[in-house]
Amino acid sequence: MNRRDLLKLGTLATAVTATSVFAASGTKEDIKSVQNAVKPLNNNDRVIIIGGGYAGLTVAKNIRLYNQKAEVIVIEAKNIFASCPYSNLWFGGVKGVDYNDLIFSPLKPASTYDYDIINDKVVSINREKKVVTTLNGSFEYSLLVLSTGIEYDYSTFGLDEKEAKKAFTKFPASYNGGFEQLSLKEKIEKFKSGTFVITVPKGSYRCPPAPYERAAVIADYFKSKKLNAKVVIIDPREKPTTKAKGFLKAFDTLYKDYLEYIPNANIKKIDLDKKTIYFEKNNLKEMETTNETLVFDDANIIPSNKASKLLKDSGLELTSDGFGRVKTPTFRSYNDDNIYLVGDVVGEYPFPKSAQMAHSCGIIVGEQIARRLNKEDPKEGSVYPQNVCYSLVSQDTGIYVTHQAYFDKADGKVKVKTEFFEDIEKSTFDATKSWYAGITANIFE
């Protein structure tokens, strides 16, 4: 299936969903009537999972592995699963990687493990009544899982709401799967010369090494095509968020003429029409700050990340940077024992927001929920997630990092032990392929 076929499929699925919303009547009153028709529990437990990504689908499967009685429903607004992990390989034209490698259907695991998938958008959560309302109806729940991922926040780049929409359209972040990915791929393939900018988000964001990996493989692509082009990374930090030694070595040795890394750069404003970025450059050595500008020809503007607005609207406790709080050492919401937070939405713990961490936490939470439904000890805090994150720095070499979460009894906090493997090696590229095949098979087969 080529990209044109995928776009047709997406359009068709969207049309079907829209038709189902307005099938009974086109009036707002009839839509409200459908929403108010709450589907009751009917003497059975029901777990509703909002978000069908790496975390949500893993939770659904692992509930079912330990509990066959409860009704398990995954509600996902997107009508296609397009993976962000592994997408940088496709952007960089890595041999043997096709867009089909990013596309999966949750219907297969839903059938295998007997849970339901509903393609719909959640509009509200009534925690008091324990009711989730979507565009098409409302559902009572026994327990609720929020694995809603991230939303974009362009305000930290000095963009208002109107400008944010323009930035999203003209220079998509591609930190979500689907049409953003297709747009960025087209930009890369059509780029002939000049400056291609990648912005690194401020604050906590999804997949910390992703902007640097993306810059490396795009620079490799430009180099292979012998283009008069350069990738410029603008980073608010002093060095790359993670695997700094490995990335900086790759930038300096592999792409000296094709990649420029600008650290300590605080973006204040982006003029989208003039394609100009205004930023403060902090010179730590000289202890001075200068105002600078950068004109670009095209860009991948990755803005700051925040948790889904659904959390705030539902009155759930948030961290100072806008992600969900949980009760240490559990995954239960800080102020609602019947709601679990899993994946990128979590801000309480120092976990990297990665697919592997989401998957690892999903396995743990799925079993804990199943044990709770079985009236057993959920054994919260007895097992902690692990993470491995591979990053390519060329067509066939990479670096990686591992994380092991643990509970520090001394101060009562969940912490993470980190190990870096930053020698640029082909074996890491091979491990990347094996990891991706393994994690997707575990979820979708």
Automatic annotation (TrEMBL):
Protein name as catalogued: Flavocytochrome c sulfide dehydrogenase, flavin-binding
InterPro entries reported for this sequence: FAD/NAD-bd_sf (IPR036188), FAD/NAD-binding_dom (IPR023753), FAD/NAD-linked_Rdtase_dimer_sf (IPR016156), FCSD_central (IPR049386), FlavoCytC_S_DH_flav-bd (IPR015323), SQRD (IPR052541)
Source lineage: Bacteria, Pseudomonadati, Campylobacterota, Epsilonproteobacteria, Campylobacterales
Domain Flavocytochrome c sulphide dehydrogenase flavin-binding: 386-444
Domain named Sulfide dehydrogenase [flavocytochrome c] flavoprotein chain central: residues: 184-283
Domain FAD/NAD(P)-binding positions: 46-151
Signal peptide start and end residues: 1-23
Keywords, comma-separated and alphabetical: FAD, Flavoprotein, Signal
